[in-house]
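PROTEIN FOLDING TASK:
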Amino acid sequence: FKGNMNVSTDHVVNYREDTGNILGLATSSYKVLQNRQAFQFLDGVAGSQEAMFVNAGSFKGGAKVYIQAKLPGFLEFGNDDQGEKFLTFVTSHDGSLAISVMFTPRPKTF
């Protein structure tokens, strides 16, 4: 290392405990939400409606994560079109995204 090193007291480094890889820099007021807490939250929101988890994943080495649940029933579009209902939970471990839960309908595939 060549140069000066600055120490910040108003930011923290978020890193993966399993690999030690740095996920990002966040303000010291940032609160970590573990992936299992995100799953529990979505289960609590959708669980009473007999939702089924269908998709989950991460991007940028785990810095951004999502989980998706399919809700029962269908949406009607126009005369003959139907759509499936989903809830998608998105968050980040690098401080770049706010926690979001979105209703994400899709056209029904036959």
Remarks:
- The first helix runs from residue 35 to 46.
- The helical segments are 35-46.
